[in-house]
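Methods, example record. To illustrate the input and output format used throughout this study, we show the complete record for NUDIX domain-containing protein. The sequence lines were provided to the predictor; the line carrying structure tokens was produced by it.
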Amino acid sequence: MRTRRSARIVLLDQDDRLLLIRCRDDGVIVVPGFPVRELFWVPPGGGLKEGEDFLQAARRELLEETGLTEVEWGPCLWTLDADVRWGGEPLHMHERHFLARVRGMPAITRAYLEPGEQQGIIDHRWWSLAELVAAEATETLRPVGLPELLADVLAVRGHPSGEPRALRI
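The corresponding predicted structure is encoded as:
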């Protein structure tokens, strides 16, 4: 089974709002036990390119998906290991989610998206914790349990100690 390594960014603004990207899946990624939903919200990020480490990939993906480069990077908060089906083929996903903070209210741009991402990335939005909790009933948020995960990060002001938390699908 092939492994896909990827990096995601838990990007917070000065008001502790989280940036999420709304994506269209079209059934490409199938997680056993979860229904396929066409649209979902996920932190910015994506797969590592050859020669990149996880943090390098996180920096590149943040630029591609938002245009942002001026952020304060924090620790790896979470890891996710899961077996899924991607394009009909079995795949092991290994993700690392890094904390980052941005000052002010920077403009988000789609100018750096790769051609394949133009149709898959629908929108972006800054979410407060309360908005995430309310949206959990009507929206698909990833990773699973995102409001609780964010609440834990905010409770320690985004500077968790120790090892990253292992997530489950």
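Annotations derived from this record:
Residues 2-167 form a domain with the Nucleoside Triphosphate Pyrophosphohydrolase fold (CATH 3.90.79.10).
Helices lie at 54-66, 115-120, 129-135, 146-155.
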